[in-house]
Amino acid sequence: MQFTYEIIPRPVDVGGGWLLRLLENGEEVGSGAFPPTDEFEDAEEALRGAYEDAEWEAYLWLESRPIPSEERHQRRAAVDFAIANLMLAGLKPSVTWQAHARSYIDGAIDLKPFVEGPDESTKEM
Question: Which controlled-vocabulary keywords does the entry list (predicted)?
Fold first, then answer.
């Protein structure tokens, strides 16, 4: 199963902002409207805030989705392979990187963010 989302603009005549679509294998399984809020004085900031709210909700939904055991096994094998190669090169993965790898194995992040590595502010080797 593939869980994804998309955030698309909402028409101004229905309040503007963003529409969050939650997708399972490309089919919509949920949605939510995120109009700009009054907590911002600037319209652009209000729109950005609404987008961030939609994105946050999408991340929460993705984190709640289970990954199949076969995929978890494949992810574990990929991480074990990466760790073995690092150790052969004389490198030891940091605690931060190991936590990042667990996020990938558990399905909290997909391949692209895993390959990109932990947040720049936490990178270490």
Answer: Plasmid
**Environment class of 4 (CB within 10 Å of its CB; exposed 0-12, middle 13-18, buried 19+):** middle
Ranges assigned E (strand) in the chain: 3-9, 18-24, 27-34
Whether 49 contacts 40, CB under 8 Å: yes
Most distant CA pair in the chain: distance in Å? Answer: 60
Domain boundaries, the chain: 3-64, 69-122
Architecture label for domain 69-122: Orthogonal Bundle (1.10)
Is the entire prediction scored with pTM above 0.85?
no
Q: Averaged over 8-24, what is the pLDDT?
A: 95
**What's the N-to-C CA distance of the chain in angstroms?**
34
